[in-house]
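Researcher: Structure for this, please.
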Amino acid sequence: MIIYSPIDGDAINYLIKFRPKHCFLITQLGKTKPKLVSDIEQSIKDCCQSFEYKVIDASAERTGRDFLLKIWKIIESVPVCIVIIHEDTPIKTQANLYYELGVAQALGKETVIIKTPRAEMPSDFNRSEYIEFNNNFKEEFKKFLKATQVQADHYEELSELLEQEPILAIDYLKRAFLITGNKNYKSHAKKILKTINTDSRAKNSIEHFSAAFSKQS
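Model: Predicted structure, token format:
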């Protein structure tokens, strides 16, 4: 997949530090965050821990550089993105949260919306499944995590069916690797890359960038 910078629109052709088995939490930050949002975050972390997943948010790293580009790179680096919507979240903050959710979906991430009972969804998301934070939350959220694991198997099957489309096959293997952390997907991607004639291609070409996840330790 070719990823374009949100800053200048140019293709991003530098390496991204991939984070297998990580969830990126798209949530309100700062001291004004409602207590219920903090409770939701903790419940998410508890569920993810049982699946050996680590949860991070935008404060996970400090780059001293462009914040928007940092968010894009974090989203690209993980398999799962979770957005939390609370009825008291300021409108401007909600706009940021939905923007990041849109980026995650455009980059092919597994996404889910967690909402408080009184929070209202924008009309564009009326067809999107969400999980309400109530007494059944952990049970429902774990269903999402289990479905994500199954999706990894689907991506592996798709990669096997795409022998004539090696770049797309590698991208599916990357998605499966990020979900599971299974290094066999990295090995398979390396084998596919060897079948592509890249002798005359630069090391930052789309072929090498697509398979970059397979070269990271």
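Researcher: Any notable elements?
Model: The first strand starts at residue 22 and ends at 26. Strands lie at 22-26, 54-56, 80-85, 110-115, 130-132.
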